[in-house]
Write a structure and sequence with these properties.
This protein has 12 helices and 3 strands. By secondary structure, it is mainly alpha-helical. Strands 1-3-2 form a 3-stranded antiparallel β-sheet. It starts with a helix and ends with a helix. A hairpin with a 3-residue loop joins strand 2 and strand 3.
Amino acid sequence: MAEQLAGLADDRALLGRTSTAERVSDILRSRIADGYFPPGTRLSEDSIGGALGVSRNTLREAFRLLTHERLLVHELNRGVFVRVLTVEDVEDIYRTRALVECAVVRGLGEPPYALESLAAAVTEGQLASVQKDWKELGTANIHFHRELVALAGSERTDELMRSVFAELRLAFHVVDDPRRLHEPYLTRNQQILQALQAGDRAGAERLLATYLDDSLARVVEVYRRRVGEEG
């Protein structure tokens, strides 16, 4: 925990002079997504509040926001914990992803599309693979799908999926072999990008739908085994 708190202390500069619960929740969301606070971790109000230099009330409001996003859970007389997803949670996350991401591709309209950020996410993933940084490859994969959703140009959709992708990272942190989980999809990200670059919206949607089905099956297989072992 000491290492995690030291990292949070570094984040104090992000709060500036107008410290708010929303900014604190942004910091904690990022830290949870990056694995600094793994699923099941108890979050100490005193320690985290001290590291960030915020009041107990501000921190509690940030906890409340993240609980609403399903990243934290409050257990009576025990405190606040980073949520441990169930297999059903993982399946629901992928159901939401399929509904939203495929709809975004389907509704893109006529090409050409603004794909610079999507291409940058593919490059980010390729670099992580060359460096054998499998955790960073997982991050790049999330960035790819976040930029795919951003093609809709909808702040509401972006906000919805920000929470969904943060929840997804909770599942990824339980998986013991991130390379096997993420590496096969690097090529598939590139294929979706190439289809969109060619203006083949229907082809990109088919690739994406198959991708999400396969990813769900793989994540659930590994997640069910891991949760079973820990139970």
